[in-house]
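Contributing new records

If you add data, match the layout below exactly. Sequence lines come first and carry their own label; structure lines follow with theirs. Keep one chain per record. Anything else will be rejected by the validation script.
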Amino acid sequence: MKKILITLVIVFNMAQLIAQDYKFGKVSKEELEETYYPLDSSANAAILYKKRYTHFEYIQGVGFEVVTDVHVRIKIYNTEGFDWATKSIKYYKSSSANEKVSSLKATTFSINNGKIVETDLSNKDVFDEEINKYWSQQKFTMPNLSPGCIVEWKYKISSPFKSIDNLQFQYGIPVKKMHIEIEIPEYFVYNKSSKGYYLVSPKVEKKRGNIIFNTKSRAEGTGWTPSGTTNFSQTNIDYIITKEIYDVNDVPALIEEPYINNIDNYRATVEYEYSELHWPNEPVKYYANSWEDVTKSIYNDSDFSNQIYKSNHYNEDLAVVLDSAKTNSDKINGILELVKRKIKWNNFNGFTTENGTRQAYKEGVGNAADINLNLVSMLNTAGFKANPVLISTRSHGIPLYPTIEGFNFVIAGVELDDKIILLDATDQNSTPNNLPLRDLNWQGRLIRDDKSSISIDLIPTEPSEVNSKIIIKVDELGEVSGMVRNSYTNLRAINYRDTYCKLKDEDIITKIEDKNKIEIEELRVDNKKDLYKSVVEMYRFNSENLVDRVGDKIYIKPLLFKSETENPFKLEKREYPIDFGTPLIDNVTVSIAIPEGYKVASIPEKIAIGLPNNYGMYLFDVLTSGNSINVKSYLKINTAIYPALDYDTLKVFFKDIVSKNLESIVLEKATL
């Protein structure tokens, strides 16, 4: 019996291996007929297989190139998984050399009447797009998509640069199998670091590599030797290759929840940073091993350092600003607004200029460096101690160690009165020390002209506030009319202006009406363009949907459309921090006039709850006074980054807020 069981297990495992053929195009009917992912039935798609092979190839007369072959197979279970059928392949280009994408092949597999149908991606459906001066991408969407289909692609990237792209093991969908091989010749040394909470480690092997140098020479004729003979010779050089093999199976999806910086910061990833070159018979060369090395490398780029000292193109405009400014704050504000007015951002990032500061100023458009290096230059010309601050935007991730590639943006920093004022002129609604959310990514690096650098905290300490006052009347039919006044400060003001202030009033009204299920009679927004004041939004409204009438009772949600009705935190366990962007204050007061002939039957009880370590608090109270009801709701989050370790406490905290917000004030008809 025991032998029979062992035989059955062996047969079963062999059957599994046969069924899982990972050669390109060998998609099975069983894979196509699978209706859900066995280990995660909620998955909209799953990576059935991903293979990557990165190695170095020596090219005669050129040197080593980094070559990466990629093969991916994805199962799509429903229409919500269609997004995984779109792929972007990024490649780097410079003035001297470019990466190349080649050997692209892609096919969609589906079942029709029990037969497997293959639809190949056409070349005309592959689009080459420029992202910025240095990066482009080949982008495509797979054809003939349907629930249950499988998409598969493979391609090659050849790079003359020595960078190795990050190894990502975790995605927003589960991964069934992944096989990655990285081969590095002994001449190249990389710093390796891991991030994320799903740990992976490679098996390491050594193997031999060989370079064959072909040379030719011409010899002068002597004696019986003909004149001008060409001689060919070969030289063999052996070297050691380190081979790292990652075999990973059944990786769970990393689910994205609200209040997250960039989910990619927390996916299981291994990063390789090129650090040293050990070429035979030459001194060791070091690359970006310290912040000093990073600074030196950046300053050696003329598209960065030279641009800071150019000033002829703006002197007249700057003089006008300085003549009217009375204080340092006036000068800094005026210079920031001058740059915003003169140069519009083309939505390209970068810490080196695209057009150059002078040309960008003349043409009125430029990338982040064109704009903010102009800002640094102006501030220095005006007598301030200003320097560029390198940052990585939220979408770019967080640099884990001294690196050039980890940064993709530059802003300005002014050292004044033992403080550093941060400015970003790419955002039309930013103000000093009030940066757009994309910039608020942990820490930046301020670089001085002596090539020293210091770490700069990008997270604001001042809270971003919304203060709301609502006054309403409820009639005996349950119809509500009233007035709202909302005031927005700091990041909330930037977000409001970005969302609403370019719209016509009727478009703003439509957005608010759709969101709050009300009808607005009159709207006014103050300080749309006065960035140094709070945005104030005021409107009159009415609604038949804000209260419930049951018999002789009226039920009113105390905060009306300002109620928190759903807990944003739903995960059983969250392994990445909660990122609010900035400290927050949400302050709401509501005054409700009791309709004639009614009295208060019940009101929600007061609560006062807090988070550990003074991370935050919430107060809620309902009071009656004569013929009115006054509601107070006050939420304060004192930290921009809340630790995942205390996630359960935060989850309960917001659960209690939602529960309290959903309670009702009950009015009943008064007896005579």
